[in-house]
Every structure is written in structure tokens, then in C-alpha cells.
Amino acid sequence: MIGKHTLRNSAIPIVTLAGLEAGQVLGGAVITETIFAWPGLGRLTVQALLNRDFPVVLAAVFFISLMYTLINLAVDLVYGWLDPRVRLR
């Protein structure tokens, strides 16, 4: 019975770090895809910057920022599920 309460409390920092790591993966994709010549959003963004294709750059930055925001929203919702004291009243 104690394990249920301890696991929920100890999961909060893990969820925080998972959300931060997901954001770093989105940013690190640009470097990884460029170095290894993998097709993806990161490489598309770099190629669009080099070709001065600004609408594609804007769309890629918008998509990455939207995904980062949705990941942070999911982390905040999981906080409320893990610890009811975090919920708004």
C-alpha cells in the first residue's frame, strides 16, 4: 500500500525530466539529421535555411514549437494526475 503513494511522488521528477528530454530531442534532431544525412524535419529546416526558403523555415519552427508546447501541456496534466495537490481549484 505504501508503494502506491511513494511511486506517485517519486514519478514527478521523472515526468519532468522526460518532458525536458523530449524537448531536447526535438532540438537535437536538427544536428543529428544534418550530421548523418538522415531525412527529417531537422535536415529540412537546415536545407531551407541554406536555400533561404523562409516559409518552410517558419513552418518547421512553428511545428517544433507546437510539439514542445503540447509536450509541456501533457507533462502538466500528468502532474495533476500524479499529485492532486497540484490541481487548480
List keywords for this structure.
89 residues; mainly alpha
Write the layout of secondary structure elements.
Layout: H1 2-36, H2 41-50, H3 54-82
Helix pairs in contact: 1-2, 1-3, 2-3
Describe the structure in your own words.
- The protein contains three helices and no strands.
- Helix 1 runs antiparallel to helix 3.
- The model has no long low-confidence stretch (mean pLDDT 87).
- The chain has one domain (2-86).
- It has helices at residues 2-36, 41-50, 54-82.
- The longest helix is centred in the first third of the chain and has 35 residues, at 2-36.
- With 89 residues, it is mostly helical.
- The chain is elongated and about 60 Å long.
- 2% of the residues are buried.
The topology string of helices and strands comes to HHH
Strand content: under 5%
Q: Give the biggest sheet.
A: none
Structural class: mainly alpha
* SS element count, helices: 3
* Terminus-to-terminus distance: 28 Å
Mean pLDDT: 87
Poorly predicted segments: none
Shape: elongated
Q: Into how many domains do the coordinates divide?
A: 1
Helix content: over 70%
Q: Would you report the number of β strands?
A: 0
Radius of gyration, taken over Cα atoms and rounded to an integer in Å = 18 Å
Brief synopsis:
This protein is mostly helical and 89 residues long. The chain has helices spanning 2-36, 41-50, 54-82.
